Amino acid sequence: MSGPEPRPDEAVRSYVDALAPDGRALFDRFSALVLAEHPEATVTWSYKMPTFVVGERRLLVAVWKHGLSLYGWSADRNGGFCDRYPQLCGERGTLKLPHREMAQIPDEHLRDLVRATLSA
User: Fold this and answer.
1) What pLDDT is attached to residue 7?
2) Does residue 1 form part of some domain?
3) Strands, DSSP E only, in the chain?
4) Residue 98 and residue 69: Cα distance in Å, rounded?
5) Whose CA is closest to 68, among 11, 34, 114, 30?
């Protein structure tokens, strides 16, 4: 039997602290963009991932060895991201952003995605 679940802020902190440097850089870049667009956003722990929450909207972020994955966005609320990068948009609401592609995506395109996903 395992112990109690960690508090959300502790779980997020542990997750981020355990990331490899290249994964941490991806997370930090994306997190900074989210918080610049939505300073009111909170970060909680959901489905074992850091989750940005604004009102009723959520955007889950996972860092894997391939790069960054985003969950919780929808095809009709992606700010044109999937028109620009159709190869990165999964069929089941997953955006997979490999390191190489992420390095080439301008911040403004990611901000468009964040605005569309988390705005009311």
Assistant:
1) 65
2) no
3) 42-46, 49-54, 57-64, 67-71, 94-98
4) 8
5) 30
Structure tokens at 23: 């994964």
Look at residue 85 and tell me if it is in a domain. Answer: yes
Looking at the structure of the chain, the number of domains it has is 1
The confidence band for 1, taking pLDDT boundaries of 50, 70 and 90, is very low
- Using alpha carbons only, how large is the chain's radius of gyration in Å? 14
Helix (H) or strand (E) holding 4: none
Task: Determine the structural domain holding residue 61 and report its residue range.
Answer: 8-118
Q: What number of other Cβ atoms are within 10 A of residue 1's Cβ?
A: 2
The CA–CA distances, whole Å, from 19 to 97, 100, 113 equal 16, 18, 24
